[in-house]
Please model this.
Amino acid sequence: MLAVAILAAGKGTRMKSKLPKVLHPLGSKSLVERAIASCNSVKPDRTLIIIGYEGETIKKALSHLDNVEFVEQKEQLGTGHAIQQLIEPLKDFSGHLLVLNGDVPLLRSETVEQLISTHQKNGNQATLLTANLSNPKGYGRVFCDNKNLVTQIIEDRDCSSAQKQNHRVNAGVYCFEWDSLKEVLPKLTTNNDQKEYYLTEVVDFLNPVMATDVDDSLEINGINDRRQLALAHDILQARVKEAWMMAGVTMIDPDSITIEDTVQISPDVVIEPQTHLRGNTVIGTGCHIGPGTFIENSHLAENVKVFYSVIVDSTIASNSKIGPYTHLRGEAKIGENCRVGNFVEVKKSTMGNKTNVAHLSYIGDATLGNQVNVGAGTITANYDGVNKHPTIIGDRTKTGSNSVFVAPVTIGENATIGAGSVITHDVPDQALAIARGKQRNIENWNNK
Ligand code: UD1
Ligand code: CA
Model:
């Protein structure tokens, strides 16, 4: 049996934040969600989150996860005290206990798998992940014999200057035999600078305790302040972008591009500078995105071009061209071979194929057919101050510049709307509708 415990009860004072540290987002997920996710591949039988500071907020933030249990640590008296809270909920449990700090978000699942296998192979009572850091400041130092058996872990603040020369640090990721650990947990003391119960003190009572170095020391970065959060963001971005480049995606100036790890991209996509892809976005092959584009929770089919635009919760079929300065939102659905252009906002609307809305328009709650040509400055007046109403425009209809459709209104197929018209009534197929004041010229006006 395997249980996972995640330490998430601390306030995270160094973040200087109202939000508990482990709920700070790192890309698409919070720190604690990332810690939990790094254990998914080892399929734990139980996952226990130790909460304290703002515990209810953490519970709520994790309510979408099933199979997690919350254990309250009323007072935060240290990492050892946190694990002592498991004695009751795990009283009938037997097997391995994986412990992770909730503020270690970059751990790879492969590393967790290796830790468990090293632990099992050697029949250890405890195995912990270590790394050699050039700047080990703030981390507990791990002292081993020549067989990687741990003799002592000393926190940075408790180290003598000689001990600080040891750069091998404790990652805060451990695998324990629960049956042995639960016997020694009551023996912990507060014999240290912070007068806290340190989990690391169990090393004095368990045997054998083995350290195993992580391959990539960046994985164990703990987040204690905003600088470390920013650094973790950089590391995660580098990982994500490197993987997509290896999978056939071209990036121009990758440092200026951000891509959340939830995004899916096909080969032969080109991403230009200052482009940001977020959420459940899917980009089809042949797309050319950017420069200067933000896309969130949207699906782009093949060969779509997007230039300086914002696209949220929308879908675009193949070969369409978007931008510059287009805003698609709230389930905009753009057909194939469309052109949505300069300064156009589209909200909760559907467009057929080969339809163009090229300049200065607002299209909201509308359904546009195929080959519709929407003239410059066309507006759907969809809101009467209380309710939103639909506009329907049939295939091959052309709207003149500066037309306003006062919804609800339906325009047939092959219709033409005269420029400057305010359309308040339905227009039949094939008709020309003109709704504007007639022009009157007064001769010799300036000769008087
Ligand atoms: C801890 C380790 C240190 C290691 C480092 C790795 C101890 C004593 N030290 O130090 O050796 O190098 O992690 O990042 O374990 N927490 C609780 N309850 C508490 C105290 C803390 O749940 O009473 C949680 C925090 O929310 C946090 C985690 O435990 O997620 C680690 O606590 P933190 O105070 O950040 O420990 P470090 O000083 O970083
Ligand atoms: Ca920490």
In short: The two ends are 101 Å apart (CA to CA).
